[in-house]
Amino acid sequence: MTARRGLVLHTVAAVVTAVVLAPLALPGYVLRYDMVFVPRQPLNWEMIAPADALPRAVPLDAVVSVANLAVPGWLLQRIALVAVVYLAALGAARLLPTARVMPRVVAALAYAWTPYLAERLLLGQWALLLAYAALPFLVAAARDLRAGRPGALPRLILAAAPAAVTPTGGLIALVTVAVLLPLRSRATAAALAAVAALNAPWLLASLSSAAGGSSDPEGVAMFAARAENWAGSWVALLGTGGIWNAQTVPASRSSVLVPVVTVLLLAVAVLGLRELRRRWPGGADRLFILAAGGFVLAAAGAAGPGVALLEWLVVHVPGAGLLRDGQKFLIPYALVTALGFALGAELLADRLARRFEPAAGRVLLAGAILLPVVVMPDLAFGASGALRPVRYPADWDVVAARVAVAPGEVLSLPFEGYQRYDWTRGVVVRDPAPRYLDAPVLMNDALRVGAVTVDGENPRATAAQALLDAGRPVAELGARWVLVRRGPVAEPPAPVLAGLRLVYDGPQLRLWENPAAADTGRLAGAGRRMPALAAHLLAATVVIFAALGLLRIRRRSWYGPRTHESGEEETWPSWPPS
Amino acid sequence: MAKLATFVVAAVAGGVLGIVGILATVGAVSPSADHVASIETSDTEPAAYGTR
Predict the structure, then answer these.
(1) At what angle do helices A126-146 and A115-122 cross, to 10 degrees?
(2) Where is the signal peptide (chain A) (predicted)?
């Protein structure tokens, strides 16, 4: 790719990023649902291996805590979100097997301006979106590894690393590598071993956690794909939408024309996918298998026999709760659709150009570039202001300082994991306490979806809920601190706080101390979490060695994927035959 | 002829994008839609992870 064309793609990625994340120019933190960044996240055992909760944010929390040692939380959040959108656009554009720049721009928009990205962003799942952004680079690295190109293995590891900061992303990376690479080869074994090592932190953390491996089957229905308009949930999934939460869906998805545009987009994509098979023999088929598998997982929970199967799995197979929110596995499908749409648009543009004049083809490509934006205009400007930053009330710093003086377990009340506050402008956000306070925080991991409560897995949270339901003093739990977050949810009644001493009374937070609490309490148990720490160190070592290996090999851009470096004859490094 | 064809392609593409864009924007600003734009007023549940 010429430097000028590369510059065009970087510019497109930058413009898309700036348009989507414009409100992040304002000071503060974007707090939405699962997205909680704090000024300085502590690095403690709970970040490495939660004692009682499932390791849903392992090794993410440790990575953020370590990064926070050098970069403040507000900046780290901006780096992460910019990386998501920028790399998604750039990765798809560079992965497209073409010599022309306009179809690459089509791919960039078709992958970075999707309902999937918008909905997961609005749900605050930025770490899952790191896997989304990393997938094009991972696919390119797998292609190069298969072809025996130098530096492919380190690039594959570095592409898998951001994906593997969450269990879901790590699994997607591992399956991607397993599907795209040939079964019996040393390179495949090395790649699988490396990506498995990246997954080791959450696997070992789950072994040391007291949380049960099974999940509430009610979650299957609650977190199943959801219809966004008249066309039903399957069509929503075909358009890469269909997230379970109605509150995190861009409003434009309810437009009556969305299903029509989805069909139009898929029709063009089908044309393009045939061309993708031709330009990418062997590799395209494997990518299709990956995408189809992801789509089946996404659709399984919505209807049919898949529902019963998933319900059985989440109860009887440890860790199968990961499959409940199946829409998140649409990532490979979204990539395949974007590549197909871009190639299909290129084919149609070529036909028009040959039949009439080149300008007609360019007009068509310009239309294809704009189509994702036009059909979902409300992703612009932080999803129409939904990503507006807010400031933490000063109470949080005061409480964090008090707890830091005498660390001990903190019970966070009201016993709701997610809550809306005035200071978040009414936006629902996960309890910030576990990340703000340098202490283990006992919060409710049951999830309320409308009127239904999906039970959590944390046994201590279950015990705390039983205590609260009975109206008994929470001091019996033995936590050293009780934090009360003031907001629209009623504060706990006086009998529940009996035996506690109020040590801070602010406008947003109240902190109570339990004089009867043991000094060490839940801080103990470091020994059984050592394997998880070792897994973190192993994963970090793998990443460091991959980076060093790549630095040694590569003369130029280290992050790939690169297609053709000189001339336009070899438009795409082909896959070896399967 | 070629210029006319280009004009037709541009008109069709522009028309499709325009209609889709207008309808999508209307959907986005419609106060009755079940979506994120109405999050602060439509969902009074103070402690739910979400609604379906």
Answers:
(1) 140
(2) none
Q: How far apart are alpha carbons A432 and A54 in whole angstroms?
A: 17
8 Å CB contact of B40 and A426: yes
Please answer whether residues A420 and A427 qualify as being in contact, where contact means their C-beta atoms are separated by less than 8 angstroms.
yes
Mutate to test the interface with B, among A222, A379, A420 (most CBs of B within 10 A): A420
Residue A172 corresponds to which amino acid? I
Judged by CB atoms closer than 8 Å, whether chains meet at B24 and A375 is answered as yes
Distance CA B13, CA A307 (A): 41
CA-to-CA dists, residue A295 to A233, A303, B52, angstroms: 12, 13, 20
pLDDT at A180: 97
pLDDT in tens, A309-345: 999 999 999 989 999 999 999 999 999 999 999 999 9
Residue A356 in contact with partner chain B when CB distance is under 8 A: yes
Judge contact between A336 and A287, C-beta under 8 A: yes
Which among A360, A420, A428 has the least Cβ separation from residue B6? A360
| SS3 annotation, A491-518 | CCCHHHHCCCEEEEECCCEEEEECCCCC
Q: How is chain A split into domains, by residue range?
A: 3-86+99-208+215-378+534-553, 395-523
- Contact criterion met (CB < 8 Å) for A418 and B23: no
Q: Is A335 exposed, middle or buried (0-12, 13-18, 19+ CB in 10 A)?
A: buried
Which sign does the torsion angle of CA B26, B27, B33, B39 carry? negative
Of A154, A200, A151, A152, the C-alpha closest to A174 is: A200
- The count of CB pairs under 8 A between chains A and B is 161
The secondary structure element, H or E, covering residue A484 is strand A481-485
What three-state secondary structure class fits A78?
A: helix
Please report the pLDDT score of residue A565 as a whole number: 43
Alpha helix positions (H), A181-249: 186-208, 218-222, 232-238
Report CB contact under 8 Å: B39, A255: no
Using the Cα atoms of residue A94, residue A96, residue A101 and residue A105 in order, give the sign of their dihedral.
Answer: negative
- pLDDT (tens digit per residue) in A393-438: 999 999 999 999 998 999 999 999 999 999 999 999 999 999 999 9
Q: What is the pLDDT of residues A467-495, one digit of tens each?
A: 999 999 999 999 999 999 998 888 899 99
Give dist(CA A23, CA A384) in Å, integer. Answer: 9
For A:393-422, CB contacts with B below 8 A are 414, 416-420
Q: Is A337 helix (H, G, I), strand (E, B) or coil?
A: helix
Which distant-in-sequence residues (6+ apart) come within 8 Å of A536 by Cβ? A48, A59, A62, A201
Q: Tokens standing for A69?
A: 């040692």
Is A122 within 8 Å of B36 when comparing Cβ atoms?
yes
A142 neighbors A561 (Cβ within 8 angstroms):
no
Is B24's CB within 8 Å of A374's CB? yes
The residue of B23, B32, B49, B51 whose CB has the most chain A CBs within 10 angstroms, and thus the best one to mutate to test that interface, is B49
